[in-house]
Amino acid sequence: MPPMSTQTPLMRQYLETKEKYRDAILFFRLGDFYEMFFDDAERVSKMLNLTLTSRNKSSAESVPLCGVPHHSAQTYINRLISMGHKVALCEQMEDPKKAKGIVKREVVQVITPGVMLDPEGLDGKNPNYLASVCHRQGRWGLALADVSTGLFQMTELADESKLSDELNRLEPREILLPVEEKNRPWAERLRKNFPAVLFNAMPGWHFDPDFGRDLYQSYYKASLAGLGIDSLNGAYPAGGALLSYLSEMKLLKEGLLSRPRIYFSADSMAIDDNAKRNLELVTTLAEGKRHGSLFWLIDRAKTVMGSRQLKNWLLSPLIESKKIEERLSVVSELKENSGLLSELENEFSKIADLERLENRIVAGQANARDLIALCASLERVDAIKNTLSGCGSPLLCESRDKLDSLNELTDEIGRTLCDDPPPALKEGGIIREGVNAELDELRSIEKNGKYFISTMEAREREATGISSLKIRYNQVFGYAIEITHTHKDKIPQHYIRKQTLTQAERYITPELKEYEEKVLRASERICELEYEIFQQLREKAAGFSVRIKKTAETISTLDALMSLARVALEYRYVRPEIVDEPALEIKKGRHPLVEALYREEPFVPNDLLLNTSDQRLLIITGPNMAGKSTVMRQTALIVIMAQMGGFVPAESAMIGIVDQIFTRVGASDRLQKGHSTFMVEMIETANILAHATEKSLVVLDEIGRGTSTFDGLSIAWAVAETLHDKIACRTLFATHYHELTDLAEEKEGIRNFHMAVKEWNGEILFLRELKEGGTNRSYGVFVAAMAGLPPETISRAREILKLLEEKDLQFKSAAQKESPQMTLFEPRPHPVVEELKKVDINALTPLEALNVLARLKTSY
């Protein structure tokens, strides 16, 4: 880049601005375009496939540049943000026509993935979190804001793994860290765990508790104690840094963020990233798509606000039975009254995203169409309240009473704005007639302009005798009388030549010039005045922020409950019984996704019973593809659906509150982190054993399969004992180690179950039934044949299997003699032990005993 001293005044202005926003792509406003220069231009042209050109092409100091039209810039900005970049918008702060010298410009907004407000750049069904993390006094402070909706919440976490689990649950787009901590091991691990997230390192003073205290006081006009966050010594500094960051982004306006909400992980069921992924709660395991996940199945919300709320409930199920029952009562009432449900769905389908609409209004980024959408949505509130007037569920009644139609605001929006305003705010056409007297007068002048022009044109034709005379308008030259060269000898003396064309000349007159100035001033003033009126209306709407957000939150809650009711009605789900003791009894339970997606054959339901006394750990054996994983996953999904307040796929279900769900399912590696399949399996198992409690539900599928048989069996045996003896949690333990079935004979709370199969003419039929008792066959060769392995391979496998199953194989006997290793569960007889068994100790003198010992020592 050439030295600034050699640059033009415009380039110096650009470079000075760019220096302040070095980590952002600078969109520099030049007339009707946003231009990018130097490195920004080269990068953006490649990323967005834009034409790269240059200023001063013939000069040795040519400047690379590319640009986008200002009216379509948001599309390009959204694409850059989706790639994880920052964009700084540098606007012209004065009219170029009135500027003395270089036009004043300044950055009015910095856009990052965590502070997006444009609806085209956001996923309506997902929150868009900006997170802030700091480590203080051995605890992790976490603050989160969804700038698009105004949600602001914070928590503290005891260890790094809990922090990682929470971030995995919330999926923030951007994370703030203290710059002094960015190279610490924990920060590096965080960046590795979340490679798609934009990390911003901020100077440590942003996280200073005293700085944060002052910022909270300034923004909320309340102390830390008044906000109820004074005890969170790790969280409120993280929140202070988040507020400071939004201030630097020029977004922290009054009403943008709600008062901070405190939450703790212990307030809801903990679902770590493994469980979230393995149970396919929000995306499928194979393809990572929403379609086929539990969220996809249960999301019948009519608003995107309801979808976001439903997803939040899915990932944070309740652990307080009273709150669960409140939701279940609503779902029950709506399911039983399908007419009421349909009527509500019809009204809710007409409601826009009030949460995000309101925050665009507060941020000063809403246009007239946004206010019309706000008005149309709020106008449905009275109809919804009337529909709910006869409801009996306490939560429904409470929600009905919280709804606020804000008639004083909607009336003013309706009186002020046109029904179908254009998206642009500074080009007129958004304010109704009768709103402002000056505006109506200016419009009259503009409207009568066409009549004046046509009248003047007819008059001049008659006066000059030129029948082809026309009065035309050009954006550059304004109004002019156009006369072809054929009639140039008829041009009056008072006509003033303005422009020469190939076939004609253009002229003006003092009268025409005076009218032109009057009309153009009117048009310009109309646009200015309409924008001023709109800004006043938008500011007034921003003043209703708290009431609008309260109504929006209520609508999202109702919509989520309606969604659960609609799914329960469609799939014949039943209301679960919620109990506080750690029991779990499901009659004819079904896997909701398998049932919904695979309808070629009827789903086979299964019963399941777990408690913490005589049946707290089930050892489940049986062949692959027989349904072990389906039964275990459906059990976990039924628990989650019940505790989020929904009905469940079963004939009946008694659900004892579960505080955490853990899963260890399938084989995967993390080679980029240096972890093999077996290492991943052991890390996940270690996490379960470290954090599970008596109230947890643990789902284990194939522990110890990534190493040798003896090692794997030993680990699986020990893990099962730990879960049963020390943690005493409800556990489903699927395995191909049939030796584990012996545990049921030793442990009071362990029971054996298997997935039933039927052999028929050399083939097997999967019955999909969970039955009591163990099995000693895995039918792996049968499954291999079904998968299409070559017949000769299958035949050889069966031969080898037959040999291995015979107890008196010569090579096995030889191996037992040659190998010094003792088997794990059937120890080989030792010669010394056998000799000692032959000794009659009752008839042995002390001297004879010493002789026996000496002989054994010499012989062995």
Number of strands: 27
Question: What share of the residues lie within helices?
Answer: 40-55%
Number of helices: 31
- What Rg, in angstroms, do the CA atoms define? 37 Å
What separation lies between the terminal Cα atoms?
A: 86 Å
Quote the average pLDDT: 89
Describe this structure in words.
With 860 residues, the protein is of the alpha/beta class. 44% of the residues lie in helices and 18% in strands. It has 31 helices and 27 strands. A 7-stranded mixed sheet has the order 13-23-24-25-21-26-27, sandwiched between helices. A 6-stranded mixed sheet has the order 3-4-2-1-5-6, with helices on both faces. Strands 11-10-7-8-9-12 form a 6-stranded mixed sheet. A hairpin with a 2-residue loop joins strand 1 and strand 2 (33-37). Helix 6 packs across helix 8 (235-248), helix 11 (304-315) packs across helix 21 and helix 14 crosses helix 15 (368-378). The protein is elongated and about 150 Å long. 38% of the residues are buried. Residues 669-674 and 807-825 have low confidence and may be disordered.
At a glance:
With 860 residues, the protein is an alpha/beta fold. It is 44% helix and 18% strand.
Task: List the defining traits of the structure above.
single chain, alpha/beta, about 20% strand, 7-stranded mixed β-sheet, 31 helices, about 850 residues
What's the topology here?
Blueprint: H1 9-20, E1 25-30, E2 33-37, H2 38-48, E3 53-55, E4 63-69, H3 73-82, E5 87-92, E6 105-111, E7 130-136, E8 139-146, E9 151-157, H4 160-170, E10 174-178, H5 185-193, E11 198-202, H6 209-220, H7 224-227, H8 235-248, E12 261-262, E13 270-271, H9 273-278, H10 294-298, H11 304-315, H12 321-336, H13 338-348, H14 354-362, H15 368-378, H16 381-387, H17 394-402, H18 407-416, H19 437-464, E14 470-474, E15 478-484, E16 496-500, E17 504-508, H20 510-542, H21 545-571, E18 577-579, E19 584-589, H22 592-597, E20 606-610, E21 617-621, H23 628-643, E22 652-656, E23 660-664, H24 677-691, E24 697-701, H25 709-727, E25 730-734, H26 743-746, E26 750-760, E27 763-772, H27 780-787, H28 791-805, H29 810-818, H30 831-838, H31 846-859
